[in-house]
Design brief:
Two copies of one chain form a homodimer. By secondary structure, chain A is an alpha+beta fold. Chains A and B meet through helix 5, helix 15 and helix 16 of A and helix 5, helix 14 and helix 15 of B.
């Protein structure tokens, strides 16, 4: 991973590429690399779909090695959804394969001269870029079927669906999983629209003949990795809860805590939660011949994913994540797992962020376009997005645009990005993260649900403002660092509670890069990247007024606890004072 | 004008009202009053369509008196289009009538409890508010016909069309003219959407039995007014150009200067300009039995408006303003005056800002929804807005939303508000006003076209950055003061060039309020109101990054002069340093 592939999509006669040494970016991976490149090379006031924006695709620092859980890929740009910097990350196979191909990043830059669509093929021998308008309008599933026919099923793909081609702000970038299905997505912030604006439909990665990346100190690395894996196996969340029920184990937990946003954030408990919980989902998968315990990439030892099948045992989609089940489920008053799985499949196929789409459908329901609870209506609305009708284009641009177009006041977004599956009034720490994250509302940016609800990494009363800023700050710093390693964020459960597991991670990174690392190095990396991102956002025009939750969350009390968001503006403004 | 009418639309059982003494707001009128009330009473981070926003309707300080040109009414709120403070002003009869009724302002506040639509009737005996769902969905023309049938044709009306009811961000508030037609509009910033969010469709003002407002020193006032009128008659723009050809006299002038934005700001000259110029328009009106020289309110001595009729001599619309002719004309490649007049009529009827709509159609054409130059397609697109189809809701929310939904990069807006009829690359002073005005892109906020193109109030090279910030700053300050008096902005031509006419204005204000006034008092008022507005915007989340033109205007050279916008960010940031 000592080189960067730059593709100039604006070159005369079609895209050209050059492979450069990593140079000044050496030592950075994942989010640290995408955010550093974006901050350094993209003018903060440029149009997100214009010539000057860049799409940066970077595996993590450890991706492609034998390190467990190191399969996350980061995709960064100026976001068409938030107007600020964006790093969206995803599991799937691409990070490991790209790492083994030796690329620290792929950078798509420039502005296409016409509307020809291109595909990129990368293997050990080099890079090929070819026009292929036959791919136009293809859903990710059909697209990947074509790839399989042409390249076999051992490659990994990075692609966009029709939503990305239409440059919708809710468009994702799809990453294929171990079965070469386009089920993993860098979902948030419209990264797919930026890929679409570069007219690159597909990147095929083939690491045949490429060795696993090796550590500077192989023995120490192997030992640390072993201890790290033991730690993950030992912790109840990563060792038991997530493997058994997937992330959807949270439906009952968050609903019980009264923080489950229901009917467009109108109440904190959903009567139908039991019907769509992780427990029900796992049982359904088991009974039908699916699989509730499955990894999204090779090297995963948590295996929080699964295979969701229909009543006939036929594959529908990967096991929908908790946030997806919530977004298309309780947030829209829908308690039908099959409908939710279909919506997840459609989002993956069209190339859409499930969180943004579920929140958008919720806003559309509030606007009267459909009734809360009407699963068929929700499916029809998402179909519109795939077709790119006028209504579809509204919805495909996310909750904020949909609220604006239909004159809706209650729109659960921060910096234009939809809130995920935790109501910030009943989980106030996550509210601080939503408000202050450089990414817009994003639970993964500082998952305060840990100490607020799960009792992981300490305990902070979820309903009170006290201590939430400190909690969120520490988590945001740690997360930023983890997002740079290529590690799955779920390792956080174990490293927050088990100092020896955190130590094993630090040792593993140190052994890999051949430098003694300390916990402080990790914290300093997180701080430094966050600061870079924050400065980009300020230069792009975001201000402290953008570090706020929507006004209704400070006025409208959430049942059952009847709480409003109580962290003061002054406290929020302290988040970056460290 | 010593009282304020406050209507609480959220009261149990329907809107209630109270009439308060003007109190701390005494001495303020027009924009000074609307902006001061909004800044003091509206939380900057509230939702523009929510409970906490207020719509403030205020005649000018001199409105309702015998002062010539004092018929402007200001409408203020937090704007759903820009997210900042907004004052949109309009001619027509309402300012004079409201002034004579003694109200310094009407304030609509609160949040309706249901979707019942209301009308308000105000006369010398008091205020009546009545539900009237029969008005739902009515265009302004049909609405005013109903008013005539019920109240006669001596009243003045303030109303919204379907666009306002649908809370579209391009929705205007209509004001009836001397013939009681809904042809004058407080167009910009979505003030109509805020009125719509309060469920007030119509305000009928009847000043029967109310005397003209009298000056503190009637003799001095009369003398000053006489001198003021003489000055207006003497100046070539206010005495000849505007009466003869209306504001559309500018089409040939700006086109000749190479600053006429054509085909969505793609070039600075329009081949069809001669077919839609003020000269052609006046001749057409004359030949068909219309009227090229007509006032929009009683007491106007410039009479820049006119009556546009069809080939059979039947009334179509008031003479479309230059900015309207440009927006629906050259900006969309359309050179058909009858089509433009029809679009103007439709905008007035639906209650839409003509500048925002023309710019939006231009963006839609860039997105491929219609071809530049296709007048019939433009008409069909505006019909969609009136019907409130999904496409119509996109377009009715303005150019920025339309650009976002269709993934268009070249969107000519600042702070979300569409640029008017002067390309900021070829008229760099107006570019400074667009960029830095508290209102978003707005030519009236600091009309630097004067010294840049017209040779009024000095000469500053339009194509160079030098001197533009100072020019725009001084004009913005002066304009803010004029907008507070109720005076039509067109008096600026005469007062900029003729010190004695400016002196007459200052004397007239002084004689009216009974206090010796100086030019410094006027300047200080302007500065103070601008500062208030600026502070609101900063608190609402706008930052210096919002004081910028779209990126493409700094990169894409405009023919025929092949210039980009050259005023640096550092210079723009000096505008409020006075």
């Amino acid at each position: 991973m000592d080189k960067i592939l730059r593709i100039d999509v604006g070159a005369a006669g079609g895209p050209s590429f050059r492979i450069e040494p990593i140079g000044a970016y050496a030592g950075l991976g994942g989010r640290a690399l995408t955010s550093t490149i974006v901050a350094k090379e993209v003018p903060p006031l440029c149009h997100p779909l214009g010539e000057d924006n860049k799409l940066v695709i970077a595996p993590g620092l450890l991706s492609g090695s034998a390190a467990a859980m190191s399969g996350r890929i980061s995709i960064g740009c100026k976001s068409p959804l938030t107007g600020g910097i964006k790093e969206a990350n995803s599991g799937g196979q691409a990070a490991q394969v790209l790492g083994r191909l030796g690329y620290a990043a792929i950078v798509l830059e420039g502005k296409p001269q016409n509307d020809t669509l291109y595909k990129v093929f990368i293997n050990k021998d080099g890079v090929k870029i070819a026009p292929d308008n036959s791919l136009k309008g293809l859903g990710n599933y059909d697209l990947i079927d074509k790839v399989k026919a042409e390249y076999g099923d051992k490659v990994a793909c990075i692609s966009i669906g029709p939503a990305g081609e239409m440059k919708m702000s809710a468009a994702s970038v799809a990453i294929t999983d171990m079965e070469m299905r386009p089920t993993r997505h860098a979902g948030r912030g419209g990264v797919g629209a930026v890929m679409g604006s570069k007219n690159i439909k597909l990147i095929v990665l083939d690491d045949a003949g490429c060795p696993m990346r090796s550590a500077a100190d192989p023995e120490a690395f192997k030992e640390a990795n072993k201890n790290f894996v033991q730690g993950l196996k030992k912790h109840p969340v990563t060792g038991q809860g997530l493997p058994a029920y997937g992330t959807n184990v949270l439906t009952n937990v968050i609903n019980e805590a009264g923080g489950y946003p229901t009917n467009n954030f109108s109440t904190g408990r959903f009567a139908g939660a039991g019907k769509i919980s992780g427990e029900t989902q796992a049982q359904t998968e088991q009974e039908r011949g699916g699989d509730p315990t499955h990894g999204c990439h090779k090297g995963c030892v948590i295996r929080c994913s699964g295979i969701y099948v229909d009543k006939n045992g036929k594959f529908v989609t990967k096991q929908p994540e908790y946030e997806t089940v919530w977004a298309h489920g309780g947030n829209c008053g829908i308690d039908d797992l099959d409908a939710i799985a279909l919506l997840d499949r459609m989002d993956d196929d069209f190339g859409l962020d499930t969180i943004e789409m579920g929140a958008t459908i919720g806003v559309a329901m509030e606007a009267g376009l459909a009734k809360f609870g009407d699963a068929q209506a929700a499916i029809e609305l998402v179909k519109e997005v795939g077709k790119g009708t006028h209504l579809g284009r509204i919805l495909g641009n996310g909750a904020a645009v949909t609220g604006k177009v239909f004159g809706v006041e209650r729109v659960p977004v921060v910096k234009g990005q939809a809130m995920p599956a935790y109501d910030p009034r009943a989980v106030q720490g996550i509210g601080v993260t939503y408000a202050t994250s450089t990414m817009g509302a994003d639970h993964t940016a500082g998952y305060a649900v840990t100490a607020n609800v799960l009792g992981v990494g300490g305990n902070v009363n979820a309903l009170k403002p006290e201590g939430q800023v400190e909690l969120s700050r520490n988590l945001q710093i740690a997360t930023t660092a983890i997002d740079s390693t290529g590690m799955c964020l779920f390792i956080a459960f174990a490293i927050l509670d088990q100092p020896e597991t955190f130590g094993a991670l630090v040792d593993m990174i140190g052994a890999f890069v051949g430098k003694k690392m300390t916990a402080d190095d990790v914290v300093n990396l997180g701080k430094s990247v966050l600061k870079t991102e924050r400065e980009f956002n300020l230069a792009a025009g975001l201000s402290k007024a953008d570090d706020r939750l929507p006004a209704f969350m400070k006025k409208e009390a959430l049942a059952p606890h009847n709480v409003v968001f109580g962290v003061s503006d002054e406290e929020l403004d302290q988040l970056y004072n460290w």
